[in-house]
Amino acid sequence: MKKYLLSLLVVAFLACLLPAQSLTNALVGGQPAQTTTSDPLGRDTPSGTVLGFLQAAQAGNYKAAADYLQLSAVRRQSQGQDLASKLKLLMDRAFVGSVRRISTRPDGSPDSGDFTAQTIGSFSVDGEAEVPVVLVHASDPNGSKIWLFSSDTLAKVPDLYDNLRVHQIETRLPNILVGKTFLGMPLWQWLALLIFVPLAAASGWAIVLILAVPRRLWLRYTHKPNLHSYGRVSAPLLLFFGAFAHRIMAGFLGLPFLSRVYYYRTTGVVLAIGFFWFVLRVTGITMQRLRNHAIGAGHTGTSTLMLLGERLLKAIIAGIALLAVLGTLGFNLTTVLAGLGIGGLAIAFAAQKTLENLFGGVSVLADEVIRVGDFCRFGDRVGTVEDISLRSTRVRTLDRTILSIPNGTLATMNVENFARRDKILFNPTFGVRCETTPDQMRFLLAELRRMLYQHPKIEHESTRIRFAALADSSLNLEIFSYVLTADSDEFTAIREDLLLRIIEIVSLSGSSFAFPSRTVYMAHDPGLDKDRAASAEQQVAQWRDQNQLPFPDFSPADRSAFRGSIVYPPPESAAGGGKR
Fold first, then answer.
1. pTM, rounded to two decimals
2. Which long-range contacts (CB under 8 A, 24 or more apart) does 572-575 make?
3. For 82-212, where are the E strands, in sequence order?
4. 514 near 432, Cβ under 8 Å?
């Protein structure tokens, strides 16, 4: 991370040494400026005229600055320097407009006017009506076209200058601080910028402390340990908010036009460094926590993949930060971005499948659809996930073979994860013989419900058993219930117990299971068990007489009394331990 910050600071330092042409690009937002000029003073474009005038005036060479004004030769000789000094002061203190929109084209911008005049902004003095600042496309003595501050604008400069108020603070400062300048800016403004540095740092630190209060309250409320991660991001936050506070304070100083451009350029670089430094720190903290979580879950392969992803992500963030800094400094990024776009397309086409699998693997890891050790269904294959690598996911099938699925295919596949079940569905459908009487069926339904309600491994709230259909050779019953386990081996044992109990209840009702076939009676059919049938019908008649017929279901009190009354596993089983 220190390497990235050092690189950005070096770029910022070198940018401060840019020539005037690079500054022109900075003022107009990186638009492509003309590299060849026929005018030695750079007046071929509107931006060249504005920058050339300001540089000459800031250097105190008002005679050269007068060459950027639309004046006659006689008037330029007599009034040019005075007008140039007043215009420079108006540009410093009263100019309103976006200097980035000043055109760098020789014929100007259609949005700022026609090809003979361009409005680059306006002067606003004491809240009065704004006066437009206009450049005109005139001919020089050599016959070539140049841009000059228009005579109409210059005619209003003296009155605007007379109404321009002097900084109130300048009336209370020593003349040496007001009259002396360094790099075009009075000494008192330099002194104020230096004084604002500790004030801005204190303001930034106060903001950092205020932002930490909700986090501390949340940690105290949730009783979570303080991992001191906020301390790692406090430095970039201090840099960012400190630069922002300094920029707000400097806005009240009324810095000269060119100095203001350089100042905004410098603070813009500092803000970008602080922001991307913060992003890098947050990325490192987040990825470290994800790696620790993966290692704790036993996913060492995933943690390695995350480490590689963290490095790639930090490199991308550093690249974006460098582009942001260069854009803030005014470099033309159009060519760079175009080259990156073309190169990215070429790489994408050449490694289409590889990138597809890479992003598929990232998607699978991010969504956590599957984990190593999960038993899943992938299309028509089932197996246990053994590893999720950069290119593919390996699955151990029931045949003990290894199935390799590309991550790109896996990301679009319907995956059923059995390991995420919280309970397992028990949903058998069976039929009894058509000779079963209605009361036998009622007895059978009631006893099956009672059994399901009594069983401790059955979820009672969703359990139901219904007489479902009159089939060709059977009367069908359907059971819908959930077994309270997520373990497949335990479920098979519970299912076995339930099916055995169902067989017992069907036998107890005097009926029997129907088979999907037709029965041809070649001898006397003993028919149903009359004693058991009579007993079942007598039981139903007793329920009916006592108004306790359990249809459509048992009462809530009965269901509550049934809960857990069945001993499972059965006491006579080896797993039951002989307990009754």
1. 0.47
2. 575/493
3. 95-96, 117-123, 131-139, 145-149, 181-182, 185-186
4. yes
